[in-house]
Amino acid sequence: MKKVFYERLIAHLNRKNWWHVPPVDPDAYEKRGKFLASSFAEAEFWGRPLDDSQRVSIANPLIGDEQAISKVLGIPPQYDGMTLEQIAAHDAKWKNAALKKGYDAILLMSPKCFAEWKAVGKIPRSLELNILNLSDGGGKQKGGKNDRTRTLRSDPEENRPE
Known about the structure:
The chain starts with a helix and ends in a 31-residue tail after the last strand. It has one domain (about 5-135). Strands 1-4-3-2 form a 4-stranded mixed β-sheet. The protein has helices spanning about 5-15, 30, 40-45, 65-75, 85-100, 110-120; strands at about 35, 60-65, 105-110, 130. The protein is of the alpha+beta class.
């Protein structure tokens, strides 16, 4: 992986608008991290996304497809037929392993896109980002850099000139 590709990708991730579907479990962020999708349509797969996109600030993400990430973390990838509880437990294992290795996020790409990014640096349109650490030292959720929304439309439409 070339350093220039890595730095360019991190800059892209930090200036991109991300979409989030709030979890049902209020402790989900602490257990598994905060999952973000690269488009509203992709986020809809998991439920109703928030109306406003969000921005992130990450410095050291673990980047790869499921196989590459599982190899780095030493935890097998998810498999077909897993229940939601098993998926949640698996996500928690990945989060804890990545934090222990010093990563602040996990960026998931498809195998084809990951290979192309490693080879020529092409950043895929479809990405899944898991922000791992959203809490302060006391373990409580904070309204920090990776937990704020950024409104795309600052004024209501009725106040806009035609």
